[in-house]
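Example 3.2
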Amino acid sequence: MEQIRETFEVTVEYDEERLDKFLAVLYPAFSRSFFQKLIKDGCVTVNDVVQSKVSSQVHYMDIVSVSVPEAAETSILPEDIPLEILYEDEDVLIVNKPKGMVVHPCPGHYSGTLVNAVMYHCKDHLSGINGEIRPGIVHRIDMDTTGSLIICKNDRSHRLIAEQIKEHSVNRVYRGIVQGIVKQESGTIGGAIGRHPVQRKKMAIVTQGGKPAITHYRVLERFQNASYMEFRLETGRTHQIRVHMASIGHPLLGDGVYGSLKNPYHLTGQTLHAYSIGFIHPVTGSYMEFTAPLPEYFTDLLHKLTVHFHK
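Structure, written as tokens:
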């Protein structure tokens, strides 16, 4: 595979960071072990000095140079799929993902994905850091979760937004409807999330091997046997809101994985919407925030719950 040489200046927030961790932040598609091998192979320099120790540290204003594999040409085909665009410029694209759409190709879903759609819309203007099947993708939401998602149109934007996501500085607010009456007006759920020890397709709150996860919530409205909620993510783990709400006895309506397959509203998947997303623009440095309107199925369900509650 062709190699591409890139050079970076260490910013103050990475002063005294391990070299392999610093590189893994810049290239989220590659693991720390991948960069440890590159360091051992002499492919990384700091201030023009070849590094060989994986435990080496970088310091503020160091110049780091690394050779990494050039992004492979994608074999995923562009598809003319309509996109609801919330914002677009030369660096980023913010879309409102519909229910039932997979973000990037995976087994069983090699067409009809968000990647297929943005490849058609953006042509050759997508970041390549995350590999050939995930061009432009810097974060994701589940297939049946709707709402706001950032697409990166070049590698510089991808790196800078990935840093914000890693630092938990991206402001992500979700709306959801959960089973039962949540008694507290607001609260915080903690607990590390990792693979379920037995059901490997599920995530769970675990005592070992998980990643720290924090969800802040507040009740927007209560109905007869459901609660309309707002969630603010401090971290962004796989299935985080779904796992955390199920852990306190209030799974999301329609969530057959962490809740009940039985629901009287004929829902397909969890009732969860990525309502708004805020971040520092990678070029202008200005804070930007975008809100994705609630999908029709969600507003229809709120109406039904309201009518039933006030009967």
